[in-house]
Amino acid sequence: MTNSDLSKIKAPINEELQNFNRLYKDSMKSSVTLVDLVTGYILKQKGKKIRPLLVLLSAKLCGGVTERSYRGAILVELLHTATLVHDDVVDDAKKRRGFPSINAIWKNKIAVLLGDYLLAKGLMLSVEGTDFDFLGIVTGTVKRMSEGELLQISKTRKLNLDEETYFRIISDKTASLLATCCEIGAHSATENEEKRQMMKEYGENLGMAFQIRDDILDLVGKTKIFGKDQGGDIKEKKVTLPLLYAIKNSPEKESAEVIKAIKKGADGESVKKIIEFAVKYKGIEHAEQVAMEYALKAEKSLEKFEDSPEKESLMSLLHFVVERNK
Amino acid sequence: MTNSDLSKIKAPINEELQNFNRLYKDSMKSSVTLVDLVTGYILKQKGKKIRPLLVLLSAKLCGGVTERSYRGAILVELLHTATLVHDDVVDDAKKRRGFPSINAIWKNKIAVLLGDYLLAKGLMLSVEGTDFDFLGIVTGTVKRMSEGELLQISKTRKLNLDEETYFRIISDKTASLLATCCEIGAHSATENEEKRQMMKEYGENLGMAFQIRDDILDLVGKTKIFGKDQGGDIKEKKVTLPLLYAIKNSPEKESAEVIKAIKKGADGESVKKIIEFAVKYKGIEHAEQVAMEYALKAEKSLEKFEDSPEKESLMSLLHFVVERNK
């Protein structure tokens, strides 16, 4: 997604996003200087803020951005930031968005504690605002996200993944949070249960399309400037949809060899060969088609809403998600 | 605290504790096999369960154990377990209660995620039970606990601690959770605001006494079978109450030397010398007195309650906390 594409998508809620940025910064304030130092560092990096964007667009589409919408947007962004900080500990990652990660600068100890702090802070804001519906939605999501990651780890170790488990993993670890953003946005703007449900489904399907595209790009995307190397998933023994499909739809002799190579710990040339195998047996094409199907499902969830700049933005977001090259 | 002392304290709520153990085990169940494997390992270790004990005793003292009391007890124990799992990652600890830690067996990745899972699970139970008052209490506590630890880290690094900051740190990182246990127990049993407040104060002061005793034992306790070495805090540059007092009440020449030795990273003989310094300048005596004062304050919070076996247990707990030798 280029920055200019994203600017267009953000246009209908530019003002609201500015309000959000101010409130988000305030929400992180702590009486502990070290906390302010680390959160100040996080704030300087300016992520894409896709999650608050989803909350605010969903709210506007469902009736209008309210005070509750801002609290919801802050909640999901704090939660997302907390999981990123923990993820970097988990993966021992030294970089995040091109900057040294929190654990790289301040060590694991501070990173784990700061993640806990940010999560608690987000939940506290919802308690203080008596947004109990948000709490129900979000605590279920945190549980699903950690379960999804844990399921992925256990399946990765044994390398016995099937498509059904793959879809469960990406739904839990990625789509659940995007669904939550849209659901919370809708909750903040309308009492209409049908609208809330439609927005949740939009977010879930957007998230599925997003993660599948991510998994495709890991195999055949251009090497990202700050991102992982091509085939990073293979090196980590993560078998994603394109490979799953290719393994199922290739002669047993070839697929057995590929599985053996992944198990052994593929690198360099053997990673290249495995990617070629995924392409040869139409794994990439298949995954692209599945991502497209999810995007279409998401589009369908928006059908009943009247046309508006917000709806336009949510549609554009779908296109970018399935078409992006990095 | 010996096991027989603890048995006596538990006697008035033996049946309730058995109910709790069953419900607690159920609460951890997951559809992800790996999660069940790790939580099964945690459950086998059987901690002292001081926190659920506090919830249930407080509830019984305030009117009786209810369904909400059990949910509260599960919430605090899940939260406590989550922080222990994260703490072991944070401290790179290889043992917990004499068993290999989660991170030692399953690595940091799984330990961080499992901690997040347990915390979310606890909060979800409260949401499902519509115990919104618990959520308000507990999210504030999680925030205080992480802030307390972070404050301790930043002060430890610079070695510029004063008594006021020391008390804030131990209040945030330890006393807040014990206060929460008693407050939640009271909330589950009575609408009486005065009783709720008294129980919260009891827990806070119990927690302060507990942590100060812990800090004393780190310096002059018998080496624990499974615990850390004597003077572990000094090696980690953690200056606790006994040393703070001794530094303030000794000739500047001596205190400057001690500070220098701690900063350099004390070990072996120099740790011994620093402990002798703390003893010589009455740091231990002073800290024991302060712990006793907190215990007396806690006792005072129970005064207005009628005599009962539960009250007796909560009193006994105070004695053990300030008198224990390990």
List keywords for this structure.
homodimer, 326 residues, Farnesyl Diphosphate Synthase, two-stranded antiparallel sheet, 2 strands, 1% strand
Structure characterization notes:
Two copies of one chain form a homodimer. Chain A is an all-alpha fold and 326 residues long. Chain A has helices at 3-10, 14-27, 33-44, 50-61, 67-90, 102-128, 132-158, 163-187, 193-220, 232-235, 241-248, 252-264, 269-280, 283-302, 309-323; strands spanning 95-96, 99-100. Chain A has one domain (3-323): Orthogonal Bundle (Farnesyl Diphosphate Synthase). Chain A contains 15 helices and two strands. The first copy, chain A, has a two-stranded antiparallel sheet. Chain A is globular. The mean pLDDT of chain A is 92. The A-B interface holds A 30-35, 83, 86, 89-92, 108-110, 112-114, 116-117, 119-121, 123-124, 127-128, 130, 132, 135-136, 139-140, 142-143, 145-147, 149-151, 153-154 and B 30-35, 83, 86, 89-92, 108-110, 112-114, 116-117, 119-121, 123-124, 127-128, 130, 132, 135-136, 139-140, 142-143, 145-147, 149-151, 153-154.
Helix content of chain A: over 70%
Approximate shape of chain A: globular
Unreliable residue runs of chain A: none
Beta-sheet strand percentage of chain A?
A: under 5%
Provide the residue-averaged pLDDT of chain A.
92
* N- and C-termini, Cα separation of chain A: 7 Å
Number of domains of chain A: 1
CATH superfamily placement of chain A: Farnesyl Diphosphate Synthase
Spatially, the strands of the biggest sheet of chain A line up as 1-2
Write down the secondary-structure element order of chain A.
HHHHHEEHHHHHHHHHH
Strands of chain A, count: 2
